[in-house]
Amino acid sequence: MGRHTLEYPKTKTNTVRRKSDRASYALSAIHSLINSSQLLNVAFNTPDSSSFPTILPMIGQMGSFDRPSADLGDPLDLYLHGYVSSRMMNLARSSSSPQGEDKEQGLPVCIATSHVDALILATSPFNHSYNYRSATLFGHATLVTDDAEKLYAMELITNGVVPDRWRASRQPPTPAEMQSTSILKVTIASGSAKFRDGGVHDDRHDLEDEDARGQVWTGVLPVFSRIGEPIPTSYNKVETPVSVTDFVRNFNKENEEYVLAAAKK
């Protein structure tokens, strides 16, 4: 029997309304997008600010301290890395103080990420588009105070940059490093993803317009991230690890294959 695909329930907050056929609420799809993003945009409100929310680029990874063997299709938390005295960390710290039982614990946050996979050039500028993958999560952020969970999150986030990088780096962290770094744990309330793939979708009247077809180039411009050859430091005395060269090769190969396959759907 196949495993049931878990989804975030549709709510007023996370339901995709525009082009809803492109939406996905599957935990595996959303968590994969989050974990494959080098930067996450994290939005929150500050009590002393104007009407504008604050948005910060941060790094983070989905995981479960209580269930380390959980996979991307399981309910997970989002761990975010930050400086100990940053405004967001201070807000999360104050938001984690005891509240009434009817109130949510933690700082309300919205996390968004996106990948552009192709530029879609149609006959009419109104039919131009992108191939893309995007995901949004909504949750409440609290400061991680347990040392074991903090180390778990630091290793998780570091290995999200390059696999196995935590073990391959100098260990253990110094007390100063631990004190200057804070980790936020976002308990996810809901989320959704949205995808666009395929080629050009021209209107019928443009397809039948011989003059336009003879004057306008139409097609797909693939866009994919690529990591260049590793550049060692001037003081480096170690050969580039296999974990790094394998990561670079696999990252480039997988990104290109995905983008080209998506353009042909």
Automatic annotation (TrEMBL):
A Pfam family this chain is assigned to:
Pyridox_ox_2
Superkingdom assignment: Eukaryota
Looking up InterPro entries in the UniProt record yields: Pyridox_Oxase-rel (IPR024747), Split_barrel_FMN-bd (IPR012349)
- Signal peptide range in chain numbering: none
Protein known as: Flavin-nucleotide-binding protein
State the organism of origin: Trichoderma ghanense
